[in-house]
Amino acid sequence: FDPRHYLGTHCYGFPKTGPHRLRFLLESVTDLRETLKKKGSTLVVRKGKPEDVVNDLITQLGSVSAVAFHEEVGEIFGW
């Protein structure tokens, strides 16, 4: 969870993630973790800036051959 997603927007100060969306995200992650456990796997969940958290995880794991990620796409309005 990137803390920057839970701050106000830079234009109007509205929260990027409100309480209903946060609850949905937490319930979804909990459900995914439980589903993976039933299949003999797990889910690593961390809080922090992804660029820091991923680097720390790679260092902890020691032998990582690939890292996959995606960037959130959004529109920027320059009014």
UniProtKB/TrEMBL annotation:
Gene3D superfamilies: HUPs. It comes from the Eukaryota. GO terms for molecular function: damaged DNA binding; deoxyribodipyrimidine photo-lyase activity; FAD binding. Residues 1-79 form the Photolyase/cryptochrome alpha/beta domain. Keywords: Chromophore. It holds the Pfam family DNA_photolyase. GO terms for biological process: photoreactive repair. This is CRYD protein. It comes from Semnornis frantzii. The gene is Crydash_0.
